[in-house]
Prior knowledge:
The chain is α/β, with parallel strands linked by helices and 401 residues long. Helices cover 27% and strands 25% of the residues.
Amino acid sequence: MRLVVIGAGFAGIYAALSAARLRDIRGVSPQDLQIAIVSPEPTLVVRPRLYEPKPETLTAPLLEVLEAIDVDYIQGSAETINTEARTVQIRPAKGPRKTLSYDRLVVTTGSRLFRPNIPGLAEHGFSVDSLNDAVALDKHLHGLAERPAVNGRDTVVVAGGGFTGIEAATEIPARLREILGPNARTRVVIVDRNIAIAPDMGASARPVIEEALRKIGVETRLGAGVAALDETGVTLSSGEHIETETVIWAAGMRAAPLTGQIPAERDNFGRLLVDRCLQVPGVQGVFAAGDAARAACDDEGNYALMSCQHATRMGAFAGNNAAAELLGVPTRPYHQKAYVTCLDLGEAGALFTRGWERKVELVGDVAKKTKREINTVWIYPPKAERALALASADPERVTSL
């Protein structure tokens, strides 16, 4: 029997860990139940941190932990999924394509930044969506020091006033001063079509965010979108032109395109609709988790968000359930009633909220300490110690807040 996980992000690594955990509990050998994870590189990109400096350091190696739990790593990109034949075609970095059969498949292909067809966006826009994107932005920011302080060199426009946009924008002033010098006249502007900043964060959190933006001098242009970009800057739908050499696009996510190969229903974000055990209805042997799945967290109408907090726990349940079907043991319905947010606000600290209503619990330096712990400890994979790694993937305990 073979269980294949596509993707080595937060959902993917915990799907593999959890499946291996159940295999170990049931006393089944790795030969009788092979677990394989497919990814271009055996590393976890710590995507929630890509707004920070030195993004090239924001990865975690996975090969040793996978070896410790007897999970096979298959290097390459999944190109084609045939759910009738139960095969995945993989394109390796070198050599011919190969076909991998599966008995159960867990799709954890993540998400991609949605880039609309705005004139000049592809040529002049940056992002913190992927490791390569974040490295390119960091290189660009350091390159500004070699340019004259004219033509909006010291101005950065962030398109998107949601979680990612705010974290990127509030980090930029300190990054620019580090690069351009303490006396640089930096300017950061957030642009968002919504009439309020952070529309999903709720009324109680918004005043904290607004005060933080004022404290560090981040401007906002609300109720307006980006109409076009060119070498001189960005033009807004309001007609305003902001002179800048740096535009960071942080507006909207979509599930990775591979989910489109599963013959099943998807939502407006391209996420596969799954049942409470994270199985794709009508498609035998296929589960989905993380940003690839639209899953109910509870019975109150709350659905998992595109976040590592939900992805890790969803992955643990999906991996457990895929293995459970093969081993003939009961599956476990996914549930995740606890939900917190911790928003980095740069030099203004951070904001910690709890619950779907985003009740504010911590602000400022105290919340910043929690944010650092989340970013440097909590979201990293376990150490390559078999017992510890397997124990970390108990579905009922993963991301239990």
